[in-house]
Design goal:
Bound molecules: flavin-adenine dinucleotide
Number of helices: 16
Structural class: alpha+beta
Largest sheet: 8 strands, antiparallel
Number of strands: 19
Radius of gyration: 22 Å
Strand content: 15-25%
Distance between the termini: 13 Å
Length: 465
């Protein structure tokens, strides 16, 4: 495969945005992603100023036969939005958001983050379902998108109305339920396999301006009781409340810290956001805040929707952390699964590593299986194994821990949330298992829009590369 450096002169004539090569100042910062374990050296980083630049980059990569990585906001933990040698088409400078408050429809460019989108939509008292902290809207809309209003309004991808797409042939087309409907279906959960999305049209909903947020930490050695308690509470949680249980370590410092003498101890956190009536949300989440007489640190209350969306983001912007995130969907929480989780909770090799149980149900479960590729929406929980640590010398121990726990949980699982895909160690097996009956149809769409697998670098690989 020729190196992208050899084709720089051809793209220079057709590209308007900045082009960064390995010898250019700022190249090392520009090739970095959110995850410090990702260390790839692209031949060219091309900052698009608009759709024409995206077409130019796609044409250059296809004609010259070099790898192409698509980067919107760079939150890919496995590092698919950067590549060795090839071209990274970077969309992070495309950040416009237009809100139609009457139709409650939002049009965004791909460089928009959750924080940017909320800032604009909340001016009109609206929100698009997104994530529980800051990351890229593009990856959420294409891969699923599980956030704080999921049980009321569904996934980000459920709220995708249309997308403008640059295909592998360099054509610009629209995908919606009326135009290129096969592509539209595939984009809603099938990830970056089929083209580069240059704008997203999304449905917004009335949310806020204030919401109720529960954040209560309990110091516990044995998480089994907490897991059972949470499982029962979830059965009667209203759709207005979306929540998770996090198995973590009592943190040091003043961020939701428990008494300092407990820092470093095992901890279980219940986190929830309730929209609509604040009083009703407070009432519904009271049991989470009143779990027995355990050591607790309760900092829940009423806050703005935008603040609730960013509540945990500070922790996640810590420079220099290394990550390995994987997941499974669980139809139920059996006693056997609880035993495994409680055991691994006490064996986490890093104090930053968490084991997170996200309650699904509500609008996620009610969403139409047939109209999108997002699979296993009827699972009760998504379990996220969130390996976070410092220092390359700790990579092996931390990745091994995550892999072991993932393997131990797979027997209780029905599929995986592919935006938390580990490092693709099982090739397309996870994609096949997760998409199940939909896999063959996805391959047909792939064959139609990207027959040569130009968009191979994705969280949702359909073909072995
Ligand atoms: C700190 C953090 C918090 C997160 N929180 C949540 C959360 O609350 N809920 C949740 O559901 N997920 C969450 N995620 C996972 C997140 O959904 C994915 O990492 C997602 O891919 C990030 O989007 P991005 O645009 O930043 O991705 P990028 O790193 O820019 O891209 C990742 C991949 O997405 C595809 N892609 C990106 N942009 C485009 C485009 N415009 N057109 C076509 N394909 C494209 C490409 O295949 C690319 O390789 C989180 C991740 C992190 C690191």
């Amino acid at each position: 495969m020729p190196q992208a450096t050899k084709i720089l002169s051809s793209i220079d004539a057709t590209f308007r945005g900045a082009l960064l090569r390995p010898d250019d100042e700022g190249y090392d910062a520009a090739r970095r992603l959110y995850n410090e374990t990702v260390d790839k050296r692209p031949g060219l980083i091309a900052y698009a100023t608009g759709v024409a630049d995206v077409v130019a980059a796609v044409n250059a990569a296809r004609e010259e036969g070099v790898a192409l990585a698509v980067r919107s906001c760079g939150y890919s933990t496995p590092g698919t939005s950067v590549c060795d040698d090839g071209i990274v088409i970077d969309l992070s400078r495309l950040t416009s958001v237009h809100v139609d408050p009457v139709a409650k429809v939002v049009r965004t460019q791909p460089g928009v983050t959750v924080a940017m989108l909320d800032r604009e939509t909340q001016v009109f008292g609206l929100a698009v379902p997104s994530g529980v902290l800051n990351c890229g809207i593009a990856g959420l809309a294409l891969g699923g998108g599980l956030g704080w209003v999921r049980r009321k309004f569904g996934l980000t991808s459920d709220n995708l109305i249309s997308a403008q797409v640059v295909t592998a042939a360099g054509e610009v087309i629209t995908a919606s339920k009326d135009e290129n409907a096969d592509l539209f279906w595939a984009l809603r959960g099938g990830g970056g396999n089929f083209g580069i999305v240059t704008s997203f049209e999304l449905q917004a909903h009335e949310v806020g301006p204030d919401v109720h947020m529960t954040v209560v930490n309990y110091r516990v050695d044995d998480a089994k009781e907490a897991l059972r308690y949470y499982d029962q509470w979830c059965d009667s949680a209203p759709d207005e409340v979306s929540s998770f249980l996090i198995m973590a370590t009592v943190p040091e410092g003043d961020f939701f810290a428990m008494p300092p003498e407990l820092a470093g101890d095992p901890d279980v956190m219940f986190g929830a956001v309730g929209i609509g009536s604040i009083e009703a949300a407070e009432q519904a989440t009271l049991p989470l805040r009143a779990w027995g007489d355990k050591d607790a640190y309760d900092i829940g209350g009423t806050l703005s929707y935008t603040d609730s969306q960013q509540f945990f983001s500070g922790e996640y912007e810590t420079e220099g952390l290394r990550h390995y995130w994987s997941s499974v969907f669980l139809p139920e929480l059996t006693d056997e699964a609880i035993d495994v989780l409680a055991d691994y909770h006490l064996r986490r090799p890093s104090e930053y590593t968490t084991i997170d149980l996200w309650h699904l149900g509500g609008a996620v479960a009610r969403g139409d299986e047939a109209s999108s590729t997002f699979a296993h929406r009827d699972a009760k929980y998504m379990l996220c194994i969130e390996g976070n640590w410092e220092g390359a010398d700790a990579d092996v121990a931390n990745i091994e821990f995550c892999r072991e726990l993932h393997a131990a949980m797979r027997k209780f699982a029905v599929g995986e949330y592919l935006n938390f895909p580990g490092l693709f160690e099982r090739g397309t097996q996870a994609t096949r298992t997760t998409f199940g009956d939909k896999f063959a149809r996805l391959l047909e769409v792939k064959e139609k829009y990207d027959p040569k697998n130009l968009f191979a670098l994705t969280h949702h690989p359909l073909l072995e590369s």
